[in-house]
């Protein structure tokens, strides 16, 4: 009886430590499937379990949205396999692989888990740390540089939430040739039983063009140069008397909108001044329908 009581105390102590990563009710919403769909991923903390004397956080992984493979858009909703994370000495792990630690010394480098091609594995370097006040809570953060397949970038790791741009659960066993974050993207929302944070101006479970079908999707337009700097060009298969150009960031938020009217040309220049360096989606809508969205990489910021 005494041994059972002692074991219960040990397990309870381990469970309390695990809560520093997964607070009760923790739920994340991410942009998902940027290359071939407009979707979101929801990661939800459900419970703790003990595996090999290690407390593990059990997370459910769900996806919903519209896929557009090969011009045949359709709605989908899917629940993936469960994710198991754990915390040890302040380091958050996915299985045996490091996700992050806010206690890493500046200059520390580590690799995110990746089941696909090695060339697409993300290498991170701790840059600086500090604290930020969000909704009355002082949260620790760490800024990091990241390189994925030779593509450089920056991200912020925020206490309770984790990465703001990177999707740490890159579980699909494949990789886009240019290694951009096509599968999972930026976090839109985070919430737990005592805190919520929405960094997008769209709903957490938003996905673009719900109910879209092949009949109202126009042929693809050409987009160049891509990557672009201060401007790019869109070339249409036909002339349009009225064209609305929408530019959305990875969270789905509208960052720029341009209206083009009364033109007889099929090629139009799009001014990208004012956009931060990063990945965006160009969407075109005319009187004749909606064009399939395309990804645009902006190399220079503002």
Polypeptide structure, described:
The protein has 1 helix and 23 strands. Strands 1, 2, 3, 4, 5, 6, 7, 13 and 14 form a 9-stranded antiparallel β-sheet that branches. Strands 15, 18, 19, 21, 22 and 23 form a 6-stranded mixed β-sheet that branches. A 5-stranded antiparallel β-sheet has the order 8-9-10-11-12, with no helix packed on it. Strand 9 (122-134) and strand 10 (137-148) form a beta hairpin. The chain folds into 2 domains: 2-198, no CATH class; 214-298, Sandwich (Immunoglobulin-like), CATH 2.60.40. The chain has 302 residues and is mainly beta.
- The number of distinct structural domains comes to 2
- One letter per element, helices H and strands E, the order comes to HEEEEEEEEEEEEEEEEEEEEEEE
In which range does the helix fraction lie? under 10%
Q: Based on Cα principal axes, name the global outline.
A: elongated
Uncertain residue segments = 1-19, 172-182, 210-217
Distance between the termini: 67 Å
Radius of gyration from the alpha-carbon trace, in angstroms: 22 Å
Number of strands: 23
Which structural category fits the helices and strands? mainly beta
Largest sheet: 9 strands, antiparallel
Strand content: over 45%
- Kindly state the mean pLDDT as a whole number? 76
Q: Number of helix segments?
A: 1
